[in-house]
Amino acid sequence: AAGCDWLHVDYEEHLRPFYEKACGFAPTAAGLVRLRAA
């Protein structure tokens, strides 16, 4: 992903299951997923 380590996404509450369960975003106010291992 172009050298990125993290990806941030904003989503509405009703989309939480999609982003957190289906896409793997962490359950934060903003949603965050690591793109590369540390």
Report what the structure shows.
This protein is of the alpha+beta class and 38 residues long. It has one domain (1-38). It contains 1 helix and 2 strands. The chain has one helix at residues 16-22, and strands at 6-8, 32-34. The radius of gyration is 10 Å and the shape is elongated. It starts with 5 loop residues before the first strand and ends with a strand.
List the helices and strands and how they pair.
Elements: E1 6-8, H1 16-22, E2 32-34
Antiparallel strand pairs: 1-2
Please describe the structure with a list of short key phrases separated by commas or semicolons.
alpha+beta; 38 residues; single chain
Sketch the major β-sheet. Answer: 2 strands, antiparallel
Q: Give the low-pLDDT segments.
A: none
- Alpha-carbon distance between the two ends: 15 Å
Shape: elongated
- Tell me the fraction of residues in β-strands, as a range: 15-25%
Q: Provide the domain count.
A: 1
**C-alpha-based Rg, rounded:** 10 Å
The strand count comes to 2
Strand order of the largest sheet: 1-2
SSE pattern, N- to C-terminal: EHE
> Which structural category do the helix and sheet elements fall into?
alpha+beta
The overall pLDDT average reads 82
Q: Give the number of helices.
A: 1
Helicity, as a percent range: 10-25%
